[in-house]
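Local shape tokens

___
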Amino acid sequence: MKWQEVRELFPNQFVLVSILDYHEEDEKKIIDEVAPIRSIPDENANKEFFKVEPGNIVYHTSNENCIVHIRKDPLMRVRRI
């Protein structure tokens, strides 16, 4: 499912989605295809964000595009999506 479709199904809310396809540009992962798992209440979004499984992401549908910024800081531990 395209991100725009998710935005229409879950307007103005946080959603947990599984990333099916993406491409990289510069230091960004541009998410092309997702599978929505469930909506997340605003008060639980922060907790869900930090316990998300690899390959999934919590994102707010007010964002026109689903983009993950890649950090290449050697002092930070980063899980690949």
Q: What stands out?
A: The radius of gyration is 13 Å.
